[in-house]
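Troubleshooting log. The previous structure file for this entry was overwritten by mistake, so regenerating from the original sequence record. Sequence copied from the archived sheet and checked twice against the printout by T.R.
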Amino acid sequence: MEPMVLEPFAATRDVHVIPTLFPVPNVGVIPMNAFVLRAAEPVLVDTGAGVLSEQFLDALSSIMRIEDLAWIWLTHEDADHTGSLERLLELAPRARVATDFFAVGRMLPARPFPLDRLRLVTPGERLPAGDRELVALRPPLFDSPATLGLLDDSSGVLFSSDAFGAPLPTAQEAAATSIADLDPGVVAAAQAAWANVDSPWVGSVDPAVFARSLDAVRRLEPTAILSSHLPPAHGQTETMLANLAAAVTTTPPPATTQAQLDVLLAGMAPAAV
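Regenerated output below.
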């Protein structure tokens, strides 16, 4: 299959998901989600993958007027989270970008960034969005030191960035609108594998120290956990935390080898005429 942006769907009363499916050979299909929070000052959480920017912008415009965006919250600077940023800054001239200063610093060598439209946020800070406040926080797992998740204090929804993500075996599973529709064993194994690949330091941490990071999520009592790389999870906080706790002692999956790449390329070779 080719990477694709799917039709947006409502994850909660206040949040729409803009889902992207990205197949990875020998791994599975990775969901890549962005989110629209329908606050009085509308918020877009992340901006999709650049290679699918036109599809992403079409999907976003199907659920809101892009020019009405007030905030673009970047959970971190990776390309699958910032792909449509420049276009959105043009299409939504009043929107400001909320993110960590380190994220901007890591983007600047490769792309321009309008610092006059930047709103820096740090863990624990609250960003007003009209009828609610967004609480910045550090998720328990991350692949960038600039990562900032957020909690919507009105709905209790937690946007966890890469944390709790998982590549799933099939496109149908990756396109699910809730993890309740998936095999719990498949999700648990995939989350543990993802944790060890996306946050490879997790296998080196003291389990007791890591447990404190998980307890911080538990104390938030989120009504839903919306990961950038997993279908929405409603009312499954304890299961999700247990899956991450298991990652500390899970053997990391083997890396893709040149031999596997050769097999993949051979299968993609055009047929002889």
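The CA atoms of residues 4 and 20 lie 6 Å apart. Archived copy saved in two places this time.
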